[in-house]
Amino acid sequence: MKKIIYALTLLVFTATFVSCSDDDDNQNSNIIVHNATGTLTLKINGEARTFGTLKVIEERYVGYTDLVIQGTQIDDATKNITVALGKEKLGSESIYFVQYVNNGTHYQMGSIEITGDITESNDTKIIGTFSGMLSTINMDNLSLTDGTLNISY
């Protein structure tokens, strides 16, 4: 049953990002990619990880804007992370998706599994903490703890 729920969550999340807009000719005008500086650190199964080469992708929609943070582990380019949150949305419900990729294996968690606290999210800065359990589609798990964001873009 968990695999079915996980697969459906993945399907809905994927469909959200690939759905068509009303204006296909101007499809990318509301997506802005920012090179970012700062820190994105966390522990995976107790092992500290630091991510660099940070980008913040601003996805603008009617009534809200999402910020998608991407980073590559500084000592291993086969590992990267994506954190998605609402711009200017503070508190425990801002982060709605986290994905960690380890050499092609995707581990992710949706909003139900994320414990987070965003204290700043605006036009230039994101600050907050997050943790939770990451899973593959086969339900292999990784514990993500002590996640911190302090990013300027």
Looking at this protein, list some descriptive labels:
single chain, 153 residues, mainly beta, 10-stranded antiparallel beta sheet, 1 helix, 11% helix, globular, disordered N terminus
Overall strand count: 10
Count of domain modules:
1
Distance between the termini: 40 Å
The largest sheet is: 10 strands, antiparallel
Query: SSE order in H/E notation?
Result: HEEEEEEEEEE
User: On the 0-100 scale, what is the average pLDDT?
Assistant: 87
Structural class: mainly beta
Radius of gyration, taken over Cα atoms and rounded to an integer in Å: 15 Å
Q: How helix-rich are the residues, as a percent range?
A: 10-25%
Beta-strand share of residues: over 45%
Low-confidence stretches: 1-26
What global shape is seen? globular
Q: How many H/I helices? A: 1
Signal peptide: 1-21
Keywords: Signal
